[in-house]
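Summary for the lay section of the report: proteins are chains of building blocks that fold into shapes. Here we show the chain for Peptidoglycan DD-metalloendopeptidase family protein and then a coded description of the shape we predicted for it.
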Amino acid sequence: MRKRIAVVLSTALVVLALGAPTASADPDNPPDFKMPFPCGQAWAMFTYEGHGPADGSQEQKRIDMQWPDGETDGADVVASAGGTVSHVEPGGVHIDHGNGWFSQYLHMSDRVEEGKVVKEGDWIGNASNVGTNDPHLHYQQMYDFDGNGYPTEGGDGGPDELVHPVIQGKEYRITPGNAENLKSTNSCDGGGDPEPEPEPEKTALTYTGDTSISNGSAAELSAVLEDKAGEPVADRPVTFELGDGDSAQTCEGTTDAKGAATCPIDEVEQPLSDDATVPLTAAFEGDDEYEPSDDTANLDLRYVTGRGYGLSAKVPLPLLPLVIDPTPDTGTVREANAETASPECAEGIEALVLSAGGLCSEVVTETGPSRSTATSTVADVSVGLPGLPAIEVSGITATSTSTCSSAQGSVSLELSIAGTPVSLPDTPNFVIDLGVAGKLVVNEQIPADDADKGLTVNAVHLTALGGADVVIGSTTTGAFNCP
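The coded shape description reads as follows.
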């Protein structure tokens, strides 16, 4: 048995005794003290230096007890002999057995009420760690040698009243560092009061439902309820709350034979936060048999992004560099709900080496499931860069669409180079070599590397010697937090 450092509750109490010793008091004839535990339980008894206290004559007379074969914390403690509960303190019970004899029990949680008359084997409390650092029962026996009663006004209740405990007919003189096991014979004939109603058993609730949810779609919330041994707890209600505050959505399920409770949120409606998560709480309120428990989680909220613009250009012309910012530009759209971003169309762009007309862009997001579609249209574009043949593009439409299941793009346009129409295949990333001076990529499609699903589609992308870069009809979409 390991050595412990315990905080022992005071034994020097000042209360009125319920009865003075009678004329038949006899220190040599103690009550038939039994182990203070139900019949058949075997407990380890031990002590440590200073527990007696050690004063040369008293040795170690106080005993600590733990249950090697069971759970000490919460174990029932019963009267080791019949008597009257003379005092109850935080963690402690004192019993006056009459004829000058007393017993004391410390470090208990629930306790019998003061003044109650108990028989051998009656419940008086539950072993715990009240006043100490690990669960055990402190037990001692006293005799009123000074004739003042124990504990009583003027009586010290101290070491001069402690005796070596006699338990089940044997006197125990346990030395520090040693331990003895003893099996209780307390009320093995069936005596004693019935045990009190058991305390509710601890439970654990674990969330097991959807971890990724989408606005406009259903979500399945579920959790498993188990007892402290890991066994399922059936037929108990579990409440789920998705979100918080004004956006909270709730439902309730009942645990089945496997301890699983499930309920649906028919249509998720949650705001998109910076971290794109939604708090979830699952709770079991508890009952007479089981203690309450809960679990929390942060569910990923699916969302989409999109951007579209008609044209951008950077041409490092001598003396007069040409820079055209994306026009018209939706900017980056980030949404978990259904929205449309559509800036005003640009009627035309006129520059020294470039002109364009009828430029429009739009991003549309949808829910149930999440979807983002970016569209860019340009009526016509003319490009005449030094060293390159004239390029004419018309009827341009570029589209990018992303969901959690796919990302797709398409382009339609008509192209002529140096006045000659060019036949275009219906395949992405078609490259037209313009010689050492540059190249043209039609239906350029670039998968996103920062999204679960995502794609950038450029209708026409022109690069030329010297760093010229012209993009016509650009669209980008992405889908995030996909399951």
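Put simply, here is one thing we learned. The radius of gyration is 42 Å.
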